[in-house]
């Protein structure tokens, strides 16, 4: 996607062939900076501190992180240590574990001297597959928006939560990919962007993306979505996912469940958009089984922003001394999800729906 007319991906191999560049998302939307990842620790810190974030991008970054680890220790023990380090950074997004398992399996099949090049090649393939998956998600979801526009005869208002755009993937995005597809195909669309406390990924990142691409949008407070649905001002909800179970339960940024409840009460279609790598075929009950990351209380107690004089300041917004809980995700049960948009098409949020798109999983199931 474009920034100031120049195409960027969120992560890409550096010209030196032994490091990678990422967009530092902690600096957005007020500063656009690239950060070099040259070591395993660089990659682990980038994931843990949300320099990179979004389930698909976390997976690709972990793949490159394992490749960077091969510069220092290409032994089998080195592979295991690197995987353990990266897997511990963030527990909820399944893409991270999936990518590590895939690269590690490739490395165990080659000699130590070949593992650095092999790991970089495999991480590159995972990145390209992510781009292709997101483009396909966009095409399938874009048709949903186009069909809705044809039926209603007016611009379609889509509500989304958190950031599941190209900044959360290598390119294109998941939940925003259908919006980009519709927009580029001339379908009038207007996006309602939840601010998404506590890290404000909607206000900071989704709005940044949409503004840069020229897509009409409006930032709203997190608690405004239900009100707008009640008054017929939302036609469709599309969210991303950090882990989706084999039964179609969707884990996404905290607050997604409440949007799904409001959508069900008001009859607004509610979709989750995600690639195959986000499906955890080993889990059935998302509420009971998906590990929910608990993040630093400071994300809730403090806010950082740009001051009127152009500087930056961090301020405390919670009463001093009050205890704080900060679960990063919640789970929306499949019964509240109208459908799941994947690179293979759109299905109902159920075991049969997902197996219809991924029949090769039937035997495993």
Automatic annotation (TrEMBL):
Class of the enzyme per the UniProt entry, highest EC level: isomerase
Name of protein: Methylthioribose-1-phosphate isomerase
Pfam families named in the record: IF-2B
Catalytic center residues: 242 (proton donor)
Positions marked as site (Transition state stabilizer): 162
Keyword field: Amino-acid biosynthesis, Isomerase, Methionine biosynthesis
Positions contributing to substrate binding: 53-55, 90, 201, 252-253
Naturally occurring in which organism (per UniProt): Methylobacterium komagatae
Pathway: Amino-acid biosynthesis; L-methionine biosynthesis via salvage pathway; L-methionine from S-methyl-5-thio-alpha-D-ribose 1-phosphate: step 1/6
Family designation: Belongs to the EIF-2B alpha/beta/delta subunits family. MtnA subfamily.
InterPro entries from the UniProt entry: IF-2B-related (IPR000649), IF-M1Pi (IPR005251), IF_2B-like_C (IPR042529), Initiation_fac_2B_a/b/d (IPR011559), M1Pi_N (IPR027363), NagB/RpiA_transferase-like (IPR037171)
The keyword Metal-binding belongs to this UniProt entry's keyword annotation: no
EC number of the protein: 5.3.1.23
Function per UniProt: Catalyzes the interconversion of methylthioribose-1-phosphate (MTR-1-P) into methylthioribulose-1-phosphate (MTRu-1-P).
Gene3D superfamilies: translation initiation factor eif-2b, domain 1 (1.20.120.420), Translation initiation factor eif-2b, domain 2 (3.40.50.10470)
Catalysis: reaction(s): 5-(methylsulfanyl)-alpha-D-ribose 1-phosphate = 5-(methylsulfanyl)-D-ribulose 1-phosphate
């Amino acid at each position: 996607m474009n920034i100031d007319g120049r195409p960027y991906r969120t992560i890409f191999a550096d010209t030196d062939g032994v490091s990678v560049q990422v967009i530092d998302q902690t600096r957005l939307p007020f500063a656009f900076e690239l950060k070099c990842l040259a070591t395993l620790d660089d990659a682990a810190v980038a994931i843990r501190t949300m320099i990179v974030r979004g389930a698909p991008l976390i997976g690709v970054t972990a793949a490159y992180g394992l490749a960077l680890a091969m510069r220092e220790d290409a032994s089998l023990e080195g592979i295991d240590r690197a995987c353990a380090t990266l897997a511990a950074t963030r527990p909820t997004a399944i893409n991270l574990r999936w990518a590590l398992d895939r690269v590690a399996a490739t490395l165990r099949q080659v000699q130590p001297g070949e593992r650095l090049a092999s790991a970089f090649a495999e991480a590159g393939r995972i990145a390209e597959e992510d781009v292709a998956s997101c483009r396909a998600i966009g095409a399938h979801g874009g048709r949903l928006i186009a069909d809705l526009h044809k039926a209603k005869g007016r611009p379609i208002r889509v509500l989304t939560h958190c950031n599941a755009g190209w900044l959360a993937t290598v390119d294109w995005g998941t939940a925003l990919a259908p919006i980009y597809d519709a927009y580029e195909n001339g379908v009038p669309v207007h996006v309602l962007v939840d601010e998404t406390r506590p890290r404000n990924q909607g206000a900071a990142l989704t709005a940044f993306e949409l503004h840069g691409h020229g897509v009409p949008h409006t930032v709203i407070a997190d608690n405004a979505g239900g009100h707008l649905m009640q008054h017929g001002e939302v036609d469709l909800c599309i969210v991303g996912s950090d882990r989706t179970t084999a039964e179609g339960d969707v884990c996404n940024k905290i607050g997604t469940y409440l949007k799904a409840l409001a959508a069900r009460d008001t009859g607004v279609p509610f979709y989750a958009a995600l690639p195959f790598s986000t499906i955890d075929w080993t889990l059935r009950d998302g509420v009971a089984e998906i590990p929910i990351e608990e993040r630093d209380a400071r994300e809730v107690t403090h806010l950082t922003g740009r001051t009127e004089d152009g500087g930056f300041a961090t301020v405390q917004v919670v009463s001093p001394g009050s205890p704080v809980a900060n679960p990063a995700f919640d789970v929306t049960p499949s019964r509240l999800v109208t459908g799941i948009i994947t690179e293979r098409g759109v299905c109902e949020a159920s075991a049969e729906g997902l197996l219809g798109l991924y029949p090769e999983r039937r035997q495993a199931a």
